[in-house]
Design a protein that fits this description.
This protein is an alpha+beta fold. The chain folds into two domains: 1-12 and 334-378, no CATH class; 31-329, Transposase Inhibitor Protein From Tn5, Chain A, domain 1 (Alpha-Beta Complex), CATH 3.90.350.10. 39% of the residues lie in helices and 22% in strands. A hairpin with a 5-residue loop joins strand 3 and strand 4 (94-101). The two termini are 36 Å apart. The relative contact order is 0.14.
Length: 378
Amino acid sequence: MQLRKGRSNAERLFDLEEMPSDNQIRNLLDPVDPANVKGMYRHIFVEMEDTGLLEGYRSYGQQLLIAVDGTEYFSSKKIHCEQCNQRVLNNGETRYFHSVLTPVIVQPGNEHVLALEPEFIVPQDGQEKQDCEMNAAKRWVDQYGAFYARRHATILGDDLFSRSPFCLQLKGAHLHFILVCKPDSHVELYQTVAFLAANQVLGSKVVRRWMGKYAEIDTYRYTNQVALYATQEAPSVNWVELTTTREDTGDTLYKNAWISDFEIRDTSVEAIVRDGRARWKVENENNNVLKTKGYHLEHNFGHGSQHLAALLLSLNLLAFLFHTVLDLVDNQYHAIRQKLGRRQTFFQDLEALLRYFEFSTWDQVLEFMFKGLELDTG
């Protein structure tokens, strides 16, 4: 378009004065530390907070639920840099990879997750051991915990995070938590649970839910103030378990357990478990969407020798966050996305439009799509 008409959408929509090549873009971005764009997450969060958008995300105890999880976004047997972690495969080959902790605000029943500042899992200065997901989570709490604690936040995580040091760190940061707690990794706690069950002093609640053709039975068991481990420094936590069975067959459909610092009672157990189960959204509605729904998170857009892979990952996460916010606040964007259905279709349509038509603003792009689809925001 630049060659044919002397101007292009890159110039109009992205304020590019000159048209860079792919290699030039990568060379320019490689030295840029992704920390340079972290402030954008805070800016967007504060904007959502100031406009009241976040109030619709609050859950039990008027808390914001922050689910944390790590994911890989680059892997190669040959390409690597100083920021790579590595693992030796069974066949003796070395696999180099990048991974990142991707915290998101989630809410039960809400398909939209809101990305927060990522924490990259990279070799740390002065550390002999390879970096890991748990250490990244600890660094994230150190950097951002106080800010989100003032906003009344609860951390959700899988069994990896239900360990004494992390629970104590969350308590020290005034963050609540609901963390998956499995028997194999918490033997002493489950011995206590078994003792309390044998003496019939566990709290319990049974809820029957009609599913249209059959009923499901939710059985909750819980107790408060039990030691997480059999050590003096282990914190006391509250434990809850949910087992869902099919009434007519007795088959177990679901079973999981969590620890929390929230006091668990008959009146609160369902809400606490519901929030704990929302943890899966960081995997299904964040990581999975980014990898399979058009963002191509695991695609090697460019590895570089310094920060390129991490910076491109950061820009990808920000794009996802921008799109989520647009879907929540912009009626035209929401209507277009609903009509087109698949994210890939939306991205493909954008690519085609920007190839063949000139637009002065993004509002003009959305207006063109909105009218072309003959939509009505009501």
